[in-house]
Specification:
By secondary structure, this protein is mainly beta. It has eight helices and 56 strands. Among the domains are: 173 residues, Arc Repressor Mutant, subunit A; 84 residues, no CATH class. A hairpin with a 2-residue loop joins strand 1 and strand 2.
């Protein structure tokens, strides 16, 4: 949203019978004083700033919600709430007018009193401190006695021009604020020495951890890795160390009630999540907890899509995937437990995996949730009905879990990439200094406080599988101490792959059974996007420098370099052409084709492209977010929508990646890889399924010369749960002490 400045005495603007106080974000008509919620305040400021014209709904979505798409119900609800706020005995008429199929406009006069110009403070639009100043664009109604002299108009016009330059400079500095929010005031983080105690060490895999809001109980599942043994649900009382077995079967832990007294989990009859029900476990301090089925048809009908679930008084908040018919896209929903009315309360865009419920904070009740985008994650706070969403934090990595410190009114989380305890003050609405607190590599990590961490040791392993479709053989690059991914076939039987960890990426080359670290050659800050066997070339991308480089794979010399457009997520080389998928700050995706010989860019006119590949020298197959497959001819610029069978339509809902090779289209989902002949898309076959489908996830794939390189994430290692506390100064650090309770 563009910043503006009020030139009014004491930051007061008269709107009809109301006086808007900019500093207090409140309105008063003399008899009534109403404090506006941040969303309503920002909305009202936008109407004042653009008084005299009709504001389209799309503009409200982009400027107020800061998204390219916002559900109509959210806009309608906000407009309705603003109308209610502006209605009183003194102001009984219509305040905001609806223009059919056009938008909205302010329908009451805006009056600027005679005053000494004062510049309203400007804050980042991406935080709750968002004070959207309003430009003095005044409109006076026919029945208004207030007039402005021509000389004052000239003075105001001159001031506005001068302030315009100031605002432009302010915008440039303000746009950097989200990045500055991620830095900390302390140049060097405080060091914290922790010692670990193992609090649960069952034989098998500990996963699906859920910490209670009061941080006094932890629920988790244990998989013994035995095909004949079902998953077991346990609860640990973190105050006493007592462990309680709750249930066993095909289970998923959903969450806790806001008072930490009840646990909710899903129980299914089999591993396919068919015939499931949500169970409520209560009386958790007794020897025999009470288990009760939640008899709600709305939940049961969609149960296989529900993940997080919590109850706050008579309201249930939960997350469900398959939003907008995209299997991996998750939104949050609210359910009135009395009326059984269900509404969707968040509207994630399609350039990511959606929204994850993180925490509920009391007095007044608010929800904290994470919105995953392609290039980053955003943390929001909103009311239980989704109204007044405030973007608090922007992070380059997923946060996954957040705890709430009631005493200090702070959000806490552990950053596994920097090994730091992070915190955000809801009083000051800003990040606080980080605390450096190294712990063992973890799967889940909860910051119980600023000097204690609860974690489960990491159980994941990234492996690179190489599937030769001609020979029907499978090999792997799978060192248990390394996380291999993103492989490409090179000439002379070489294979490029990368090794990932929380602190960065290293680049490797495999030849026969020999491995060579080529990070110093490729560059630690560079990412390999594609390989071209015909040119013996690797395409790499530097995000910080926005630079694309083509390397010769024989000696890794630079063939060519050119500036990138936007933040590149995917690229495919095709002779002299390179197709590149990029995203802008609003997370809108764009597909461009770069001609290396002509040094020209050509934008592909396809809405919301998601994945693509070349099928010949001049044509692409593109999958867009609206679940369509489109064939694009870059010479004629013609678009052709491909008809899909019902089977492919279902597969496309879960599609992560699209590839083409030797006449076949390859469709990669999280659980399988399929292929179908381009000229006969009804003939679909499965070419790869992980051996342990329940505990494995396909992250991505590429194919060259009938050789698939598949990046797989597997959760199959035994792990345990640890409690880290600040070590006494005279106490030596204990790497693996004995559990503080009997196993």
């Amino acid at each position: 949203m563009r910043l503006a400045s009020f030139l009014t005495k004491g930051n007061i603007v008269v709107i009809g019978e109301w006086q808007l106080n900019i500093d207090q974000q409140s309105i008063s008509d003399g008899d009534n004083t109403r404090e506006l919620e941040p969303l309503l305040f920002k909305l009202l400021c936008h109407f004042i700033e653009h008084n005299g014209r009709i504001i389209p709904r799309q503009e409200l979505a982009e400027k107020i919600w800061l998204q390219s798409y916002v559900d109509d119900n959210a806009i309608n609800r906000a407009i309705s709430e603003l109308r209610k706020a502006l209605k009183s005995a003194k102001q009984p008429g219509q305040s905001i007018k609806t223009h059919y199929r056009t938008g909205y406009s302010l329908f009451i006069p805006v009056i600027m009193p005679e005053a000494t110009p004062i510049i309203a403070s400007t804050e980042s639009v991406e935080t709750i401190q968002n004070v959207a100043s309003v430009q003095t664009n005044t409109t006076t109604s026919n029945n208004t006695n207030f007039t402005i002299k021509r000389s004052r108009k000239l003075i105001l016009s001159l001031l506005i021009l001068l302030l315009g330059a100031f605002v432009a400079i302010t915008i440039l500095s303000t746009e950097q604020k989200p990045k500055n929010q991620q830095t900390h005031s302390a140049p060097t983080p405080k060091e914290l020495k922790l010692s670990a105690q193992t609090i649960s060490w069952h034989k098998g895999t500990h996963y699906n951890l859920r910490l209670s809001p009061h941080k006094d109980k932890l629920a988790f599942l244990v998989d013994s890795m035995d095909k004949n043994t079902k998953t077991t649900l346990y609860i640990i009382n973190l105050e006493t160390g007592k462990e309680l077995l709750i249930d066993s079967g095909y289970l998923v832990v959903n969450g806790w009630s806001h008072d930490s007294e009840r646990l909710f989990y899903t129980q299914c009859k089999n591993s396919t999540k068919a015939e499931c029900e949500i169970i409520q476990a209560s009386d958790l301090l007794s020897a025999q907890p009470k288990l009760q089925h939640l008899n709600n048809p709305l939940l049961d009908a969609n149960l296989k899509y529900i993940f997080d679930y919590t109850e706050i008084d008579n309201t249930a908040i939960f997350s469900r995937n398959n939003y907008r018919n995209i299997a991996h896209l998750t939104a949050l929903y609210s359910l009135d437990l009395d009326t059984k009315e269900e509404i969707r309360i968040t509207n994630p865009n399609i350039n990511g995996t959606g929204d994850l419920l993180l925490a509920v904070i009391p007095n007044p009740s608010r929800i904290i949730y994470e919105r995953h985008q392609i290039t980053h994650s955003e943390i929001y706070m909103s009311n239980l009905d989704g109204s007044s969403p405030i973007k608090l934090i922007v992070q380059p990595y997923r946060i996954w879990v957040i705890t709430y410190d009631r005493k200090n009114n702070e959000l806490l989380w552990y950053d596994r990439h920097t090994s730091t305890i992070e915190s955000y003050s809801l009083d000051e609405m800003q990040m606080l200094p980080a605390i450096h607190a190294p712990i063992a590599r973890s799967n889940y990590a909860f910051s119980l406080s600023k000097n204690s961490i609860l974690n489960s040791t990491d159980l994941h392993d990234h492996d690179l599988l190489i599937l030769d479709l001609d020979k029907n053989t499978q090999t792997e690059i799978a060192n248990p101490a390394k996380n291999e991914a993103n492989g490409f076939k090179l000439e002379k039987q070489n294979t490029y792959f990368q090794v990932r960890n929380f602190h960065g990426v290293s680049h490797w080359l495999k030849h026969n059974s020999q491995y060579k670290d080529i990070t110093s050659i490729i560059g630690k800050n560079n990412r390999v996007l594609d390989a071209d066997l015909s040119q013996n070339a690797l395409l790499i991308y530097n995000k910080e420098k926005l630079l694309l480089t083509l390397l010769n794979t024989n000696d890794f010399s630079v063939i060519e370099q050119w500036p990138a457009r936007g933040s590149i997520t995917t690229a495919k080389i095709n002779g002299q052409y390179i197709a590149l998928l990029s995203t802008d700050k609003q997370m809108n995706s764009t597909l461009n084709i770069y001609d290396r010989q002509q040094s020209t860019w050509d934008k592909v006119n396809i809405l919301m492209p998601f994945s693509f590949d070349w099928i010949n020298s001049t044509e692409l197959i593109v999958n867009n977010r609206t679940q369509q497959l489109i064939q694009y001819d870059m010479v004629s610029h013609q678009l052709k929508k491909l008809s899909l069978s019902k089977e492919l339509q279902k597969i496309k809902q879960s599609l992560r990646q699209l590839n083409y090779d030797s006449g076949f289209l390859y469709f990669t989902t999280e659980t399988d890889i399929y292929r179908a002949p381009l000229d006969k898309l009804t003939k679909v076959e499965t070419v790869f399924t992980p051996s342990n489908k329940v505990m494995s996830l396909i992250l991505g794939s590429n194919i060259q010369d009938n050789t698939l390189h598949i990046s797989v994430l597997t959760a199959q290692n035994k792990n345990y749960i640890e409690l880290y506390k600040e070590a006494a100064k005279d106490m030596p650090e204990i790497e693996r002490p004995v559990s503080f309770f009997s196993l």
